[in-house]
Amino acid sequence: MIQETTITAPNPYLSPPRQPGGYARRWRGLPREIGYIALSAVLVVVLSVAATVFFSGWQGAGDSLGSLLFLAVVVFTGLWLARWFGTFEVVRLRWASDRPIRPVDWTPNTAWGRSDKWLVRTLSVVANPHYWLYLLYALVVFPVVAGFTSFVTVAALAVPALFVLVGVLLLSGIMPATAYSFVEVVGGGAFGLGSLAVGVVLLATVVLLLPYVLHGFVVMHQAIAAAMLGGFRSDQLEVELADREISRTAALSAEGTALRRLERDIHDGPQQRLVRLQMDLAAASRAVDSDPVKSKGLIEEARLQSQEALEELRALSRGFAPPLLLDRGLVAALESLVDRAVIPTTMLNRVPAHVVIPSDIERNAYFIASELVTNIGKHAEASSADIVVRTRQAPDGVGTLLELVVTDDGRGGAGLRDGHGLAGVQERLVGLGGFLDISSPAGGPTIVTVSIPMASDLGSSVGSPADTAPTAPLAPTAPTAPLGPGAF
Q1: Are 283 and 467 in contact (CB under 8 A)?
Q2: Is the pTM above the cut of 0.90?
Q3: Does residue 262 lie within any of the structural domains?
Q4: Of 220, 240, 8, nearest to 99 (Cα)?
Q5: CATH number for 410
Q6: Is residue 352 in a domain?
Q7: Distance CA 406, CA 445 (A)
Q8: Which residue, 431, 309, 420, 302, is CA-closest to 361?
Q9: What is the DSSP string of 340-373?
């Protein structure tokens, strides 16, 4: 077994990682941020024109009933237009910023939103709060925020430019010093030189600080949009709860399947040997007086039967929890597993020494690895295999995954088929909330990656949150032997 030091995986999902580059990086992102601010200013003008047209049409509607009908039609249309505008704004922010916004679930949340009649479904948008938030953002929040950022950006560049222009005009004589009394008092040359110096200093300061100012504006836009245009946390929790319920059902099903398989294994193995043992002992008892030699032979056969039954029971007991796993942990148990493998198998441990794996995760990881190694020996026609055990950050950025990567150089063609080993692994993983990835082209190699979520608060068991930094996802190294069975 080889212990390797691994690097920490970044979290690209919830918050952007700190990237190297500092000031230079801000300049590299400046063109996109300028483009975002400039287009925002254009959109403010478009929205202002649309609001002017709306109020003109409302006033021209005439009587109160006509005004109300016109307002209802415009508001309903505005809800759909606001959704499109908000979606476009999310796309723009995704282009300008590396801070993602939680997606919105637009599934109708009312019974009439799921009606068979398209008109009823269309009108149901008035009951969806996301539409109203998008409308509020498009009509009020975005124009105010975008107008403020556009004004500040233009003013920050225009004021220093104005000082420079006045200085140039005075020094060149295009603007006479007598044009303004306060200029005449100071002197045209002195005032122009001072104005030029102040303008150059201000303009240089603005240019130097512009990347940070525009980045701050984009971050402000993103924060407001994330609050109003992003999905609700409650919606995400409902999805997670539904997933947990599915996992719970799958776990119960997997447990029942495991118990039925254990019952079948005991019935077909040790039980038959014990029945034979009982029959041999009964025959030896009857022959002990009349034929001692025969009785002695039967007793010896019974002893061998009991020894073989004990070995089978020991093998079956590993399906509950091997003593080595309980005493020394997952790595030691996997080392013992690869030592007993039918084909030459190696193990690479890339789990940082400070990471504590929960016992239930260790147990399931061991049984999954045992199933995969056993299937390689039975079906893969492989000459060698290897197991890599490692940790990495979960795709949602919360918590840590324990990964098992099993490879072999067999014939390939492995897949999920009912009654085979990989189907059982998949069923177990659903109960654990994990997932399975299989790469098994014809002719091999086969690479099976198993990912099992661990507790997100491992820091409580190892000292501090910093200690729990998971290892980065490793690029699949050329396996010494891929994991291949076509008949897993």
Answers
A1: no
A2: no
A3: no
A4: 220
A5: 3.30.565.10
A6: yes
A7: 11
A8: 431
A9: H-SS-EEEEEES-TTPPPPHHHHHHHHHHHHHHH
